[in-house]
């Protein structure tokens, strides 16, 4: 069909050029990571594109100068093509998770296997491995989420800064779905995973990657389109036992040598509450003779069980919890359990769970980052979705604790990535970009490279960074500037789990593979 002009030589293209130019300018500004978070840019890109297309269609239909016949046929063809493409996508694809922490849906063919279906059952456990498991912890172990004390920092490892020869791979293999990290004691690493319809806890030999024992809840599977399927929490190893929280709210205490259940509770059933949107993700906290976890929708905020037999000890708070794990600390001389809720941060007495203080911290989006206790009397809080980072100070007046804000800013907005402290500075991934803040003042010292929504761990004066893409990087933890020392491809695909380092052995995993490397 020949293009016909209503009036010969009067094709009015300038308005369309202006629309396209404005669209590109706004799109570029929208994706400027210096001033807008990536999830906002992702969510607004679609509406911006639709507005630009509608503007072009209006120009084409009324102001282009083309003949009426050309305009009608072209617009009908365009609408038909777009409508057909949308209907075809609905008929042939489904959403399965996201491409990254930004939250853009990942489309797959409807007839393709469901995530994790190809992993198959766990290989048979060999008798010699099963019989030799000893989960007695030592100071060199990485026995829980974020390492000893949940500080996300370990010392005395002595890693080399020379990565001219990449870390040596000990093993690399497929693993079940889920976002659990490894807890490591001695030569044994424990994690949670989803294999088919079964939610499992598996103990692996660190040297070989062979399974030593497994504990299974059959026909238990948590599914959520953004985060994907499977367990979210990391096991806690203490006193030769393994404590695990499943995504559907099942709290297990397992014999560390065999994986057999000592006792089990359903946290949501105990409190008659519903699950959280993204599933139960808190790693159990062992505090003396208690194990402490968060509750369900509508509270209680915290629950404690006796480690001996799993009997309930206390509940504390009445708020819907966030997705972080509780932290045990002594601040201003007062032992307490810190936790993050949907709209607040609270401190609870470890003896009976009563609320010591509450900091109002509203926000409609998830809060995932651990609170960090700072000696002698301060607490650091961080969150993404525009909230940023702040430091609170606790003061003890008689028997009453009060809090006030020392500083707060939006220089560090770690959506999924826990922060770490070293040498009076805070290091974290600000919407995926490595950032250093001065701890006393909150001043931003520098912004470095982008690692996506991965995780980091302070190791002496270094940062071990697990990037979202699967690479592991080594970065100097210094306030005078960003300096990446080395990097290697540890995994492939989206990785949200934190690294676990026991001695010089690094264990990493995502939702489809796991690996162990020996660092120089």
Description:
By secondary structure, the chain is an alpha+beta fold. The chain has two domains: 14-93, no CATH class; 127-518, YVTN repeat-like/Quinoprotein amine dehydrogenase (Methylamine Dehydrogenase, Chain H), CATH 2.130.10. Helix content is 15%, strand content 37%. The protein has helices at 14-30, 38-63, 68-92, 127-132, 267-271, and strands spanning 93-98, 105-109, 153-154, 168-174, 183-185, 188-195, 198-205, 211-217, 236-238, 241-245, 250-255, 261-266, 285-287, 290-294, 302-306, 312-316, 327-331, 334-340, 344-348, 355-360, 372-374, 378-383, 388-397, 400-409, 420-422, 425-430, 433-438, 444-450, 455-459, 462-466, 471-476, 484-489, 500-502, 505-509, 513-518. Strand 11 (250-255) and strand 12 form a beta hairpin.
Describe the structure in brief.
The protein is built from five helices and 35 strands.
CATH homologous superfamily caption of the largest domain: YVTN repeat-like/Quinoprotein amine dehydrogenase
**What is the 3D shape?**
globular
The total domain count is 2
CATH architecture of the largest domain: 7 Propeller
Share of helix among residues? 10-25%
Question: Which runs of at least 5 residues are low in confidence (pLDDT < 50)?
Answer: none
Output the number of helix runs: 5
Major sheet strand order:
3-29-30-31-32
What structural class should be given to the helix and strand makeup? alpha+beta
């Amino acid at each position: 069909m020949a293009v016909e002009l209503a009036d010969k030589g009067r094709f009015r293209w300038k308005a369309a050029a202006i629309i396209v130019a404005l669209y590109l300018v706004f799109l570029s500004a929208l994706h400027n990571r210096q001033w807008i978070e990536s999830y906002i840019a992702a969510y607004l890109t679609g509406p911006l594109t639709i507005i630009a297309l509608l503007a072009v269609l209006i120009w084409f239909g009324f102001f282009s100068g083309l003949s009426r016949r050309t305009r009608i046929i072209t617009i009908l063809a365009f609408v038909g093509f777009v409508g057909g493409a949308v209907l075809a996508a609905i008929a042939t694809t489904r959403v399965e998770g996201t491409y990254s922490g930004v939250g853009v849906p990942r489309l797959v063919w409807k007839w393709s296997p469901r995530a994790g279906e190809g992993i198959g059952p766990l290989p048979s456990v060999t008798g010699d491995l099963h019989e030799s498991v000893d989960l007695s912890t030592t100071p060199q172990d990485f026995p829980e989420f974020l390492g000893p004390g949940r500080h996300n920092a370990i010392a005395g490892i002595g890693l080399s800064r020379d990565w001219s020869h990449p870390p040596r791979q000990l093993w690399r293999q497929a693993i079940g779905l889920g976002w659990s990290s490894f807890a490591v004691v001695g030569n044994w690493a424990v994690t949670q995973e989803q294999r088919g319809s079964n939610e499992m806890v598996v103990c692996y030999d660190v040297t070989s990657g062979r399974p030593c024992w497994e504990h299974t809840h059959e026909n238990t599977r948590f599914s959520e389109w953004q985060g994907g399927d499977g367990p979210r929490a990391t096991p806690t190893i203490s006193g030769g036992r393994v404590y695990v929280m499943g995504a559907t709210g099942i709290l297990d205490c397992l014999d560390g040598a065999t994986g057999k259940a000592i006792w089990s509770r359903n946290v949501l059933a105990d409190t008659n509450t519903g699950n959280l949107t993204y599933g139960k993700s808190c790693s159990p906290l062992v505090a003396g003779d208690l194990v402490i976890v968060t509750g369900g929708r509508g509270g209680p905020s915290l629950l404690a069980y006796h480690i001996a037999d799993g009997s309930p000890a206390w509940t504390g708070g009445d708020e819907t919890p966030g997705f972080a794990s509780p932290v045990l600390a002594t601040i201003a001389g007062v032992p307490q359990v810190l936790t993050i809720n949907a709209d607040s941060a609270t401190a609870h007495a470890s003896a009976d769970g009563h609320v010591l203080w509450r900091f109002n911290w509203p926000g409609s989006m998830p809060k995932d980052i651990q609170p960090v206790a700072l000696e002698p009397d301060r607490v650091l809080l961080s969150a993404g979705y525009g909230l940023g980072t702040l430091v609170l100070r606790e003061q003890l007046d008689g028997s009453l604790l009060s809090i006030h804000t020392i500083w707060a800013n939006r220089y560090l907005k770690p959506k999924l990535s826990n922060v770490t402290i070293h040498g009076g500075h805070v290091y974290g991934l600000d919407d995926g970009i490595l950032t250093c803040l001065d701890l006393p003042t909150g001043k931003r010292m520098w912004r470095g490279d982008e690692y996506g929504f991965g995780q980091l761990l302070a190791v002496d004066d270094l940062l071990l960074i697990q990037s979202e893409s699967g690479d592991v990087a080594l970065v100097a933890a210094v306030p005078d500037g960003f300096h990446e020392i080395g990097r290697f491809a540890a995994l492939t695909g989206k990785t949200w789990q934190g690294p676990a380092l026991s001695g010089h052995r690094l264990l990493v995993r995502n939702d489809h593979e796991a690996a162990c490397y020996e660092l120089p």
